[in-house]
Each structure stands twice: as structure tokens, then as C-alpha cells.
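User: Please predict the structure of the protein below. I'd like the answer in C-alpha cell form so I can feed it into my own downstream comparison script.

Assistant: Understood. Taking the following sequence of 444 residues as input:
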Amino acid sequence: MKNYPLLLLTLACLLAFEPAPPVKTILLKNITLIDGNGGKPVEHTDVLIKDGIIVKIGPGQTASGASVINGQGKTVMPALISSHVHIGMIQGTNHKTDPYTRENILSQLKKYTDYGVTNILVMGSDEPMIFETGLRDSAANGLLPGARLFSAGYGFASYKGAPAMKKNYHPATAAQAIRELDSMVALRPTVIKMWVDDFGGSSPKMDSSIYKAIITRAHQHHIRVAAHLYYLSDAHRLVNNGLDIIAHSIRDQPIDAPLLQQMKAKGTIYIPTLSLDEYAYIYARRPDWINDPFFKASLEPGVYEMITSSTYQDNLKNSPSYQRNVHAFETALKNVKLIADAGILVALGTDSGAQPVRTQGFSEHLEMELLVQAGLTPLQAITIATKNAATALKINDHYGSIAVGKTADLLILDANPAQDIKNTRKIAAVYKAGVEVSKGPLLP
């Protein structure tokens, strides 16, 4: 074995000069680009993606070895981000089974990406399993199929009040709230969620001393606080006490100038969840999308039959809450326009997944349609669903817009949503970190 050292040297040299794994390069050619920043669509341009990152934008690009996608007639926009959802709460038409399982959650994360939603924030309904098994961290870091998952941990509700979940807190005192919040810090929640509402008079409302303590303590831990609310008066008090995110619309009356000024000065974020309020009554009117395959594909088994039944629709129509729900929706539409016009950051969220009728994926597209119905432009609605929602989650350094250096989370559409917001539903492909993960919920 006189040549053994020479053999080792030869092998070392070969290994040293072994080529690096090829970089995955994609070139989108001749597309119409909506970048999420609010500007007009740019026609006949190109986007170059390497290893999941956007590296060049502009016409006339070439790249050796790239997979070239002809974008003639296609529009490219950022993937959607939903800053208020729930997972593992629905399965079929009821809550009799325990839907909070790994299998069900992964299925729902996949559903979100089928609808072009690649990042979600679960607002206070999570359970220990998602943290103890590492599911939250794996999903947030893009290591699992489906949408990246961010969590508000376990929410805070009023003492002996709604909502009642397996794992949320109902502190009787401010001191108890502080202890419970401290115990949750190790979970690294994106925000703290609290419910400050009487649910139409059916539940005691959280005492102000408790929500003040939650806000103060969360801020000491450098964590923001989001609140479920309904009334203008509560919004005034909460914003005055430092609330960071209003997680539902103000729905009892029009927002006033003093609150608009205070929200603008404090940087309060507003998540209107318009679709939630429409779902509260709209099935009684058989909306024009109820038979749309894009909607039906998002439903849990049995839900379509339930919502189209005369019994269900009559119950909605005859409910004592029907007119209140209609008024709440109409007020929400007016308020989101006033808030957006005031220059306050509006971020997309839907409360999808909290109930079977608040369908995951479709709701995010319906929300954009409702924002346009409220008087915003399609491009404003898209920015709310992309850049603004990323800002609300504090992930805007990587997601929410199509820009050099950002992660290539994007939608390829068969039509331009700047012309009709419903065109976001014409999904040709969904890309997550530069990899095609879906062709939309409806296969050709």
C-alpha cells in the first residue's frame, strides 16, 4: 500500500473541488407585477428567484440554468397573510369530536396554502400540544407543509365569562392575570390575546383593572396585546391604556375623530375581520358565492349541506340577533374606511377556523372583496392582505411584498386583481419560499 497516502491526497482534492449543490433558480418572465406596496401594477416585467429569495426584478432578465416560467397573461402578487385565524377548532359540522390534533392542524395549514395564504397568526386558541411537540416552531420556520404558523398562545377572557376553551385564562384578579401571563412568556407568543366583550350581553365583560394589568405586564415582557372588542367605548379605554392591536371591528357605532387621532398617534393596528360579521347573517340571504366551487372546496365535510338547508337559513333569519348582526356588519364597513383614510394601519384577518361557517382560505379572499365593498381600492385591499399583515406580525423583513431580498412567497394568478379583486381567486400557482406548493384549491 505504498500509494495509500497518494490515494488519500487524490480523494481529498476531488472532495475539495466537488461542485456545490445547484442553486434552484426560477425566472418569471413577462408578468404583470403587483408588489404589495400599493403602487400600480407593472406590466411586462420579470422576477428572478434563487434559493427561495427574490434577487432581481425588472424586464429583460436572463439566468443560466433557470427554470423559466412564461408569465404572459399572468399576474404575480405576494402570498396572503392572515393575522387573525384559528386552527384545530373545527372538524366537520360540530365540536363533538376533539379537532385539536396534529393531523387536523396540518391539514388546515395545507388548506391555507392552497388558497394562497402562507403565514397565519392564531389568536389565542392554541393548546399545549402545539408547543410541547414543536409543531408551532417547525411550522413557523417553514419546516412543515402548509402555512407558517405564529401563535398568541392561550388567550385571556373575563372571570366566568366567554369564550370557554380547553386552555385559556379567566383571571379573577389583576395579580392572577400577571402570574398567568408570566407563565406563558416561555412560549414566545407573537402577541397576547384577550377578549373584552360581553358577547351581546350574554357574558360578563373583563374588568378594566385586569386588562390594564395584562397590557402593562405584557409590555414589560416586550410583547404586544391584541383585544377582541365590539364597542366604541371599550376601544377608547383600551387604546388609552396602550392596546396595540384591535382584533375585530368596532361595530356598535361609527368611530369618532378623537379615537382616530389617538390610534394614529399610538400606532394602533386595526384588524377588521369583516367576513366574520358577514357570516353571522349572510347565509340567510344565499350569497352569490354560496355555490362557487372556490368557496365549496374550503368547507369541512357536511357544512355545505348544513348552511344551504332551509332550517339553518330560517334560524338565522328569525334569530333575535339578525338585525343586530346586519347593523354590526354595515357599521364595520363604514369604520374600516374611516380608519384606512386616517392613515392607520389596517391588516387582514378573518377569524377563519373558529366556526365551521368561517371557512379557512376562502374567508381571506372574501375579506379583500369586503374591503373593496367598504370603499377601498383593490390595490389597497391587497396591501392590507400582504404588506400590512406582515407588518402586524412583525415579519415584514422577509414576507408581505415582492422586493429584492424578500422570501419568494407569491401567487401566480390568471387575471389581474387590480381590475377586479375577485381575480385573487383565479390561482394558477402558489409559491412558498420559491417552491411551488399548490395550484390552488381547484385542480384543472
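That's the full C-alpha cell string. The chain is about 35% helix and 15% strand.
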